[in-house]
Specification:
single chain, 112 residues, mainly beta, three-stranded antiparallel beta sheet, 4% helix, Phytanoyl-CoA dioxygenase
């Protein structure tokens, strides 16, 4: 599977991402595989190396839409982990529904 990138995910954390607040773990080269059903990638790709993004607040994390990724646990005692999440796609990219609609948790606005 060696298709050109037609979609990007961009995460912009609003607080520093550290070991305590939990980073975004990404499986390297997972975009080159048939990714199958959601939730199975980390089981099926145990042998692929992972990288975890730890960045300062406001630093964008940009990745191919097909890269398997997950947010790691926030073990800090008092820091919430708000972020902005953008998806960019070429006009010719097919529409993909890859996650069921679910309720999102509303967080109290905060000053950063």
């Amino acid at each position: 599977m060696n298709e050109k990138v037609d979609r990007l995910n961009v995460f912009v954390p609003l607080v520093a991402i550290t070991d305590q607040t939990g980073g975004t773990e990404m499986k390297t080269r997972s975009h080159l595989h048939n990714n199958g059903a959601r939730g199975t990638a980390f089981e099926g790709y145990k042998d692929l190396p992972s990288i975890t993004a730890y960045v300062e607040a406001g630093t964008p994390i940009i990745m191919d839409y097909r890269v398997w990724h997950r947010g790691l646990a926030n073990t800090s005692e008092s820091t919430v982990r708000p972020l902005l999440y953008f998806k960019y796609a070429k006009m010719t990219a097919p529409v993909v529904v890859n996650a069921p609609t679910k309720k999102r948790k509303r967080i109290t606005p905060m000053v950063v």
